[in-house]
Design goal:
Blueprint lengths: L3 E3 L2 H4 L3 H7 L4 E6 L2 E14 L26 E6 L3 E8 L6 E12 L8 H8 L15 E6 L10 E4 L16 E4 L10 H9 L1
Antiparallel strand pairs: 1-7, 2-3, 2-7, 3-6, 3-9, 4-5, 5-6, 8-9
């Protein structure tokens, strides 16, 4: 495995669209019971409240969204449909309620379950609301940037409107979803690509 380095807070304290795009190819790491679960990020979505009606922060500052208004580089974890947890990365300056949803991972180390979807990746990485507000510059949940080996090209990145936010009107059409174009782990990958995973 190539050498890696932990992402510093300066990375998160930038424009949300820039962070959402540059997260593609980075590693998400969760230290669980003395072991590491590691996945390569292949799909993200940017949320820029309060104006963005698809963002939770469009409803204002509440106990649920408090983390989004805090310093960048923290985890915003929420629970939906009575079943799934979703992990977001808080971005921008303190007081600006922006975040990036992680939608899919490619397993790297210690992952046995499916990871193509925000709920699936949280289950595979053992991420739940206990990690809401976790400092991503700490030693429990963090991101790492792989130092690319010579001759290794970064993933081709595509973008599209976000998924499942039709209720947000014109905001639903913003191309704020980023994904590794050729990854078979992206949540919208074709059945043909998904079949390759089952054969591995």
């Amino acid at each position: 495995m190539p050498p890696t380095r932990k992402i510093t807070r300066d990375f998160y304290a930038r424009g949300t669209l820039t962070v959402a795009r540059e997260l593609i190819g980075m590693h998400l790491v969760h230290a669980v019971d003395g072991a590491r679960r590691v996945g390569r990020i292949v799909e993200t979505e940017a949320y820029q409240g309060p104006e963005d009606l698809a963002a939770h922060s469009s409803r204002g500052r509440t106990p649920r969204t408090e983390v989004m208004f805090g310093p960048p580089g923290h985890a915003y974890v929420y629970f939906i449909y009575g079943f799934w947890h979703c992990l977001n990365i808080v971005t921008e300056a303190k007081g600006v309620p922006h975040a990036v949803l992680l939608r899919a991972l490619e397993p790297v180390t210690g992952i046995k379950d499916k990871t193509w979807g925000p709920g699936l990746l949280c289950r595979a990485m053992d991420i739940d609301k206990r990690l809401n507000g976790a400092d991503l510059c700490g030693d429990v949940l963090w991101l790492e940037s792989s130092r690319r080996s010579r001759g290794h090209e970064p993933p081709a990145i595509a973008r599209s409107p976000r998924i499942g936010v039709d209720y947000a009107g014109e905001w639903a059409r913003r191309p704020w979803r980023f994904y590794a174009k050729d990854s078979r782990y992206v949540s919208t990958a074709s059945p043909r690509l998904r079949a390759v995973i089952a054969q591995d």
